[in-house]
Amino acid sequence: MKKLYFLGPKGTYSELAAKKAKEVIDNIELEDISTIAKIVELVNKSDNIAVLPIENSIEGIVRQTIDNIYKSDVKIQAEIDIKIEHCIISKASDVLKIKHIISHPQALAQCQKYILENFDEKIDLVEASSTAYAGNKLKEQDETYAAIVSPHLAQELNYNILEKNIGDIKENKTRFIIISKKNLHLGKNIRTSFVFNTKNEPGALLKILSIINKYNLNLIYLESRPSKEVFGEYNFFADVDKGSNEIKEALIEIEKECNFYKMLGSYCNI
């Protein structure tokens, strides 16, 4: 049976995204892997599939994901949007007993307002590698400890839920991508992602943007990242909101103006 890898441990939003992907992919078995780099490596040398986080509406792009996939032969097959909510759990039933809060640094940052309003300046914020790890860490702690976790993990762990939906920004979402070397044909493609490196001359990037304007394309994402090959050289990662079959001519023109060009995927939303 084929594997569907996700960023572990179990109980994270990555697992939630993987379960959603499993609904549209038959005969697949979930397996958690500890790093994004390892996940891409495993998919790149097999027929297996993976789900990876690529963008959060608050924190922005997940650079580890884009840095790893563009160097591989994998392609983006679909995107999945997952709503992110945080709740605080503990063995204690009273929030006044809490002296320490464990969670992933992003979760702590995204709940900063709640923490400031409900705890004094002496509260001890303990960073963990994931919200799932934070929740499981409570087993070893007394009632002075709490953890910020996802609602689905809170239900599984069966601790007291002191408060739900404590994030500072309520419309918090993470976009995940399904990657595979083989085309999975999961739906109508509505987004195309590609990476390119312009010629080292004045106005090189403007030429690319002029092509995008010429074909009336909606550029919904553009970011530069170091090429990691030549100091001062950058790759540009771009997304447009159409499938590649609709913009073939534009992509051909863009490629002609680049030193390096690579399609990362044309895909649907599920």
Measured between the Cα atoms of the first and last residue, the distance is 22 Å
Proportion of residues in extended strands: 35-45%
Largest sheet composition:
10 strands, mixed
Range of helix content: 25-40%
For the record, the CATH class of the largest domain is: Alpha Beta
Radius of gyration: 21 Å
- Given helix and strand content, the structural type is alpha/beta
Please trace the helix and strand order, writing H or E for each element. EHEHEEHEEEHHEHEHEEEHEEHE
Principal-axes shape call: elongated
Poorly predicted parts: none
CATH-level-2 architecture of the largest domain? 3-Layer(aba) Sandwich
Please give the number of β-strands.
Answer: 15
Mean of the pLDDT scores? 94
CATH homologous superfamily heading of the largest domain: Periplasmic binding protein-like II
What number of structural domains do the residues give? 3
